[in-house]
Amino acid sequence: MNSPLHATPLFQTRLTRAIVLAAGTGSRLRSGGNQTPKPLRPVAGVPLLVRVLRTLASEGVREAVVVTGYEGEAIRSRLLARESELGLAVSFVDNPRYLAKNGVSLLAAAEFVDRECLLSMADHLYSPALVRRLARARLSPGACALAVDRNIDDCFDLDDATKVRVRGGQIVEVGKELPTYDALDTGVFRIGPALIRELSRLDRDNGDCSLSEGVSALAARGDFVACDVGDARWIDVDTPETHAHAEDLIERYGDGLEPTDDSVIRRLPVSSPYAAPLAAAGGDAE
Length: 286
What we know:
Elements: E1 5-7, E2 17-22, H1 27-30, E3 42-43, E4 46-47, H2 48-58, E5 63-68, H3 72-81, E6 89-94, H4 102-108, E7 117-121, E8 124-126, H5 128-136, E9 137-139, E10 144-149, E11 163-167, E12 170-175, E13 183-191, H6 193-206, H7 211-219, E14 224-228, E15 234-236, H8 240-253, E16 265-267, E17 278-280
Parallel strand pairs: 2-5, 2-7, 5-6, 10-14
Antiparallel strand pairs: 1-9, 3-4, 7-13, 8-15, 10-13, 11-12, 11-13, 16-17
Helix pairs in contact: 4-6, 4-7, 6-7
């Protein structure tokens, strides 16, 4: 069977639509006493969700479909008030089952996944370079991809990270409790109708479904590949401690989480109250 991934620095898929999942309660970040809905929580003065949408717009996304649930009306009204600052058009889908697993949130936007598009979590900040590398992965028709970070030794809070087992560039399994793994899930995907079909089947059979379950189902057929993000920075803003770290990163590296010189830089890859910065080379190296 041919591999569904063929990487080349000269190729870039034009991905103009993104689905952004912003339906969860964000209870761990709110445990610090601030009750602002997680997608609206300012990081260095700008709401998390606004930062995500600006990053997507900077890489050519023209339409974002935001899936809301918990405090959905507040998120919609605040975001529409800032729509002129985003650089893309925004529409909203409500997920009344927002207490279910995150695959149900993606199913709420199923009608918008009628072609290849990006999928992002609303609480993951990442550099434009990460999106660029994902778009440069050449996939076979119908295949999907997950942006992964292979810098496992640099993660100090593996209990919270979603792990990815990879073989020959293809995802074998995804989950938080994997006993063996090769990479970490960054929360940014390239998806298409095939993932919707798998999630629909899982939800129909089990009454619930997670993205990890859908990814694993497609991976079993060899249709979900791992795209290594290299030195592109990202952080899952999931706790008060990682919120503070995210603000430090933006202060050091700017809104794009990218360096402005050739110095050796440090980065934090996942939600970790105790994570020390990581050594990584700057720029957009392939």
